[in-house]
Description:
Elements: H1 7-20, H2 26-37, H3 42-78, H4 82-87, H5 89-117, H6 121-136, H7 141-157
Amino acid sequence: MLFGSGYVLLAFLRADLVERLGWLSEHQLLDAVAVGQITPGPVFTTATFVGYLLGGGWGALVATLGIFLPAFGFVALSARLLPRLKASPSARAALDGINAVSLALMAVVTWHLGLAALVDPLTIGIALVSAIVLLRFPVNSAWLIAMGAGIGLVFFQG
Length: 158
């Protein structure tokens, strides 16, 4: 589950915490993802935020340890195996398949979160403008998140 970047974990967070257990709403998960985007290691920070939502300070601590410790252990245990895996055609083929599945998981989660987030013309407009700016200019996405939040505050508070 660590393969393919932290964004693959969003599929599992959504499936378990939103759909299966009902501990979070789609909007709370979206908020967690947004909070995570303004920090290094975005999805891992999302886990800390989700832990905080569910269990306060202790929940944040346990979620942070739970998201980081397995990765460190996995890397330590697999370091000796990696040269052999790279030399094996079967292992390389399996890793290529895992890459494809990871991309599919990220695409599905993006689709579901997009459906939950893009609910009116304003949010759709903010998303389109943000996508254009990100593709056209070398801007830090944190500025786009801050501007989107500011626009949302102006339009939804007034």
